[in-house]
Amino acid sequence: MDPKTWEQRKLSSVVTPVKSYSITRDNERKSTNTEYIHYGDIHKFTNTIIDDHVTLPNIADGDYIPLNEGDLVLADASEDYVEIAKPLVLFKTDGRNIVSGLHTIALHPHDVESLFLYNVFNSQNFRRYGYKVGTGLKVFGVSSKNILKYSFNSPSMYEQKKIDSILLKLTDLIAANEDNLKNALNIRGRFNLHLLT
Asked: Whole-prediction pTM value?
């Protein structure tokens, strides 16, 4: 992979905006066929690669335009600049009826791999861009118009898939090590408690 051969592309040339709805927490229901993504969920999740193992809140079924597998959703509001435009990607969600809710920007990628774009949104360059175009005093916001102006370097689709594969393996490895560490700390805590009693 030679970065010199990467092409600079504007985000607006590789994504199509998808409708977001002003769906608030008040609209949540127990069990329906429709799930939604609220900006608060994007901030809450530590891993924002959404697959079959991730549960999203339900809302009443309605005449919504659903997201497709591979679509990305960004939080357009944040209490700090660190998580402004934090991304989430729908990965392995085929068959689920998911819509984009309050304070979100939904994007459908074409001519770019979803996971590659997800990693672009998590890059330091994009984070700095978010700080630059974000507005607000107590709550920071970013507009889809400004997001679509962002430019990034992109390799071929083949190279994007290779990069995605490596980063997914690293993500899985990190998650497994975090689980092991949590378990080790729990065991140590129970052992120390047993010594005290």
From this structure: 0.82
